[in-house]
Amino acid sequence: MKNIILTAIDAGKFTTLLSMLKAASFLDTLRTAGPYTLFAPTDDAFKALAPGTLDALLQDPDRLYALLAYHVACEVFTVKDMTSRDIKTVAGTSLAVALRGGDAFVNGIRIEQADIAASNGVMHMIHTVLMPPTPLAAASRA
Fold this sequence. Notes:
The protein is of the alpha+beta class and 142 residues long. Helices cover 26% and strands 26% of the residues. The strands form two sheets. Strands 2-1-8-7 form a four-stranded mixed β-sheet. Strands 3-4-5-6 form a four-stranded antiparallel β-sheet, with no helix packed on it.
């Protein structure tokens, strides 16, 4: 089984996410043993951001890292684990996960494809970039 990064590459829907992870020096983290849960925005999710947002993030590596860290938890959360509760992210903030009517949600966003298994965790495909509730601060790069 491949790690989260190789799984994302093979899926072919996460090229923007992968390039942003590279720009933020986050790729190597998600290649390690983990375990991790990645709420993975698709290329279309990044295209839906306001014009100039991607460029602004790429100009500010600490802000970019904080945004990406908001999409990652340091344990595995599969759909069966997503009872209504908060989970802690690498950024030190929380995401609200819930199951409603057989669908899983993160921060109210429906998970389009859940439980994409990887050797070091799990990915959940989402069609929205998750925005932290407070202004992006530099996350600790542990």
